[in-house]
Design a protein that fits this description.
Helix content is about 35%, strand content about 25%. It is of the alpha/beta class. α7 links the parallel β9 and β10.
Length: about 240
């Protein structure tokens, strides 16, 4: 019997069936009925362990319904912080960031790392060589920055993330493009210059977009959160034996 991993983010859902730490078929859903979509995944196959990382609150009734359709249900959200604490992580940390930290500890054992997660927000988390969580920072993500310029100004248009960016803008549009993308690049490079000994890990929807603009050596792990959830499921299964 396989495990099911579910990552419910601010704008989309990712899910994957897994055999141990090997991710199988992956699903993506973007819509308002995320929990209903999760239920549709387990109609035909009952997972041994289902791990859900969620930015939205999972009410008691939904939790009970999901628990009835799987062998064991593990939830990581604002009301379920026990797992974060078991891994020595602060309870204020969002569940997706916690899962990324757990995965990075596993991938880069003995090395310090900086995890950049490029999504609705840009989160940066720091680990030392022993895997201890050192804290992290949050700023607006790339698309969020473009949208906020349009929303909070009277004259600036909404701009899509460009394929190519000039170092300095020579029009209103290119000025916004270079300002947002260049600003994030300076942000990344600033952190890396402060901690040159740490491994840089990129994940999230815009990870590849910024990775190809980097001169530094970095690791791109697109399914870092799901990998962390797989590790949580495996640790739980071992404790149950």
């Amino acid at each position: 019997m396989s495990n099911l991993l579910v990552e419910i983010g601010n704008t989309a859902l990712k899910a994957a069936w897994t055999d141990g730490l090997t991710l199988g078929k992956t699903f993506r859903y973007q819509g308002e009925k995320m929990l209903e979509f999760v239920e549709s995944l387990i109609v035909k196959e009952k997972p041994a362990i289902m791990v859900i990382s969620s930015t939205i609150k999972i009410d008691r009734r939904t939790e009970e319904r999901l628990a009835a359709d799987c062998g064991n249900l593990l939830i990581l959200d604002r009301d379920h912080t026990e797992i974060m604490e078991e891994y020595g992580l602060p309870s204020y940390l969002s569940s997706d960031r916690a899962a990324s930290v757990i995965a990075s500890r596993h991938l880069f054992t003995g090395k310090g790392s900086i995890i950049f997660d490029f999504g609705t927000t840009l989160t940066i988390d720091f680990l030392d060589g022993e895997g201890k969580y050192l804290g992290g920072n949050i700023s607006p993500g790339c698309r969020t920055r473009f949208k906020s310029l349009n929303r909070y100004s009277r004259t600036l248009p909404i701009v899509n993330t460009p394929s190519n960016v000039t170092q300095t803008g020579d029009s209103l549009i290119s000025s916004i493009e270079s300002g947002v993308v260049g600003g994030i690049m300076f942000e990344i490079q600033g952190y890396l210059s402060l901690f040159p000994e740490k491994v840089a890990v990129f994940t999230g929807g815009d990870a590849l977009y910024f990775a190809k603009r980097m001169k530094n050596s970095i690791f791109v792990v697109c399914n870092l959160v799901l990998m962390g959830l797989a590790l949580i499921a495996e640790d739980y299964a071992e404790r149950k034996v």
